[in-house]
Amino acid sequence: MDPRPQTATPRIRSDIAHNARVWNYWLGGKDNYPVDRAVGDRVTGMYPSIGEVARADRAFLGRAVRHLAGDAGVDQFLDIGTGLPTGNNTHEIAQHTAPHARIVYVDNDPIVLAHARALLTSSLEGATEYIDADAHRPEQILRAARPTLDLGRPVAVMMLGILNFVLDTDEARSIVRTLMAAVPSGSHLVLTHPTLELGGEGNEAAMRFWNENATPPITARSREEFASFLDGLELLDPGIVSCSRWRTNPREPEVAQFGVVARKP
Predict the structure, then answer these.
(1) Which of 55, 73, 140, 71 is closest to 104 using CA atoms?
(2) Is 131 helix (H, G, I), strand (E, B) or coil?
């Protein structure tokens, strides 16, 4: 029996802005609607550095995956909250370094599902799979990932810009604990998350506007709250920093988005 969730694909809403499409717009993509561009422009007007945040988050993904697939020797990736395909997706970066790497993408956005075929390309030695599942249901994700990933071997669990859509911090911690409890020593957790503690004039007002005009709702968190997701894990240098400064020039301008990579001992 196929353990992957079998659900009907919801109708794609083109009348309300959605995070995956607006993010795609900020990254210069074309998979978005007029409503997404309108909201994206309004947010940019209030928070001019949001485009820099989007690009810094994407660049952080590349650096983290290259390190994990290279120096850390991790060859399995569980990428939760995949978003729309762009250049340098997780499997492309990982398999460039480790052609045998296996990647499972997870998202429950119907427009991402519609584009999932672009993610299901792989090196001959490796594998990619896409799961239509909700980040709020980590047990479901783990069940569906098992046909592709060997959860008895180290896995990189990636949640970039995802826990900010889990508004209850206790629930967000529980999601992380469940995922990391299911993978062995040597596994890694890769996170990014918006914050109001690293500047970004207009950030708070832009978030309020987003929550009133787009979906899903979002929240920022403090460094202390963000650090609570990492209990029991070993932080890789340089620890919790602006994602734009993780293993780059320390003089790189900060963006209001934490980034961290941590290892399960």
Answers:
(1) 140
(2) strand
Mind listing the pLDDT tens digit for each residue in 171-207? 999 999 999 999 999 999 999 999 999 987 789 999 9
Packed helices 50-69 and 19-26: angle between N→C axes, nearest 10 degrees: 90
The band of 119, judged by pLDDT with boundaries at 50, 70 and 90, is low
Enumerate the β-bridge partners of residue 132: 107
Q: Quote the tokens at residue 3.
A: 């353990």
Higher per-residue pLDDT: 162 or 6: 162
Closest C-alpha to 14, from 164, 214, 217: 214
Domains in the chain, please, with CATH?
17-263 (3.40.50.150)
Rounded to an integer, what distance in angstroms lies between the CA atom of residue 178 and that of residue 163?
Answer: 14
pLDDT in tens, 146-167: 999 999 999 999 999 999 999 9
Contact 250, 239 (CB under 8 A): no
> Nearest-5° angle of CA 172, CA 163, CA 10?
105
CA distance 162 to 203: 17
What CA–CA distance (Å, rounded) separates 70 from 68? Answer: 5
For residue 77, give the DSSP letter.
E
**What proportions of the chain, in percent to the nearest 5, are helix, strand and coil?**
40, 15, 45
* Model pLDDT, residue 12: 65
